[in-house]
Amino acid sequence: MVETQSVALALIGKHNDSLLADWIGLQQQVETRGVDPARRTQMVEYSRQFLHELRRSAEAGQSDDITGPDWAPMRELLDSVSQARATQGYSAGATATFVFSLKEPLFELLRRELGRNPDQLAEQTWNATRLLDRLGLYTVEAYQTTREAIIGRQQQELLELSTPVVELWEGILALPLIGTLDSARTQIVMESLLQRIVTSGAEIAIIDITGVPTVDTLVAQHLIKTVSAARLMGADCILSGIRPQIAQTIVHLGLELNVVSKATMADALGLALRRTGKAIVDRSRPAEQGS
Amino acid sequence: MGEIPILRIADCLLVSIQVDMHDQLALALQDDLTRRIVEDRARGVLIDISALDLVDSFIGRMLNNIAAMSRVLDAVTVVVGMRPEVAITLVELGLALTGVRTALNVDKGLALIRGAIDANQRPDARRKI
């Protein structure tokens, strides 16, 4: 086993440079994105390191079990390749191609050198395939892990970003909602709104749903909860930013929101100012002030 | 257990609930409060629950009952000082206390009662029955 594997390794060592050149050429062919010099340099560097680590690890390791300690540097290399590609926006397939594309030049090399001995050729090819498949799958898994970490972080950021409570006027808060309302977001929205009601002593909260793409029964339920909770704290809510389609949906679904609603935030602010006994006047026409 | 004190401010009554409520205490409070509304000719009742960090369905029902009783005696009930976490819990329990008026603090609650009394005393006001 060790002896047969060393045949391929010796061949890789002997023809390292030509193999590397073939492999890089092939990777550039499948590269559909524009060839960026920085990325090209990085790819060449990764490819060189990969061949180096492949030889070193396989020579040191007794078996082709890539989870063993002998393969640790190789795993680190593949981790960094996957991370770099995931953050650069490569797909999972394109990332795995990095490893799988080595097969073609490697098999070509084996066929050229061992063509006279079919048994040995078949065995070497099989061994190489098995090893490269494992390394490729490991790369995909590492890519997936990185992507999941990115998605998790983005979700967290979205939750924190998308729930601002704005003080429009003394005693008037605005809550512009962006995106779909699910239970977790409703909870955060409700908490931040109620907290602001306490600190600012606001009596009116305008909930603007311009940025909410759809209103179904669940979203309506969450809106009703938020309105009820604000009411228990002594603040009235005005719903604004209702698009025509959403008005139709609300009626078709038979939803009863039990809250004053306005088409635009401007109308809602006007109503809120009237309720708090304030008015906005046009100072260029002072004569009409009294009327 | 002692009883819950009822303070008078002008023509309003202020009740501050600061201890855990139980059946006996709730009944005693309802008795006291209705008696005081009649005796003092109170027009408004303020119930301060800012000291409560837990309001369950029992207290919710009691608040609703007090509001309904006061309404019969022509007094406006306002619940003031509910904490955010209490409000969220009540909403999650499905208790929106629709029969009760609410305000953020005692000041705003008094202003709300003044407004309601003024609206009722206008000559053109029609009383809803």
Oligomer: heterodimer
CATH class of chain B: Alpha Beta
Radius of gyration of chain B: 14 Å
Largest beta sheet of chain A, briefly?
5 strands, mixed
| Count of extended strands of chain B | 5
CATH class of the largest domain in chain A, named Mainly Alpha
- Radius of gyration of chain A in whole Å, from Cα? 32 Å
- Residue stretches of chain B low in confidence (pLDDT < 50, at least 5 long) are none
Task: Kindly estimate the percentage of residues of chain B that lie in beta strands according to DSSP.
Answer: 15-25%
Structural class of chain B: alpha/beta
Low-confidence stretches of chain A: none
Under the CATH scheme, the architecture of chain B is: 2-Layer Sandwich
Order of helices and strands of chain B: EEHEHEHEH
Shape of chain A: rod-shaped
Structure characterization notes:
The complex is a heterodimer of chains A (about 290) and B (about 130). Helix content of chain A is about 65%, strand content about 10%. With about 290 residues, chain A is α/β, with parallel strands linked by helices. Chain A has two domains: about 160 residues, Orthogonal Bundle (Globin-like), CATH 1.10.490; about 110 residues, Transcription Regulator spoIIAA. Chain A has a five-stranded mixed beta sheet, with helices on both faces. Chain B has one domain: STAS domain (Transcription Regulator spoIIAA). In chain B, about 45% of the residues lie in helices and about 15% in strands. Chain B is built from four helices and five strands; from the N terminus they run E-E-H-E-H-E-H-E-H. Chain B has a five-stranded mixed beta sheet with strand order 1-2-3-4-5, sandwiched between helices. The longest helix of chain B has 18 residues. Chain B is globular. The N and C termini of chain B lie far apart (about 40 Å). The model of chain B has no long low-confidence stretch (mean pLDDT about 85). The interface between A and B is medium-sized, with 18 and 19 residues.
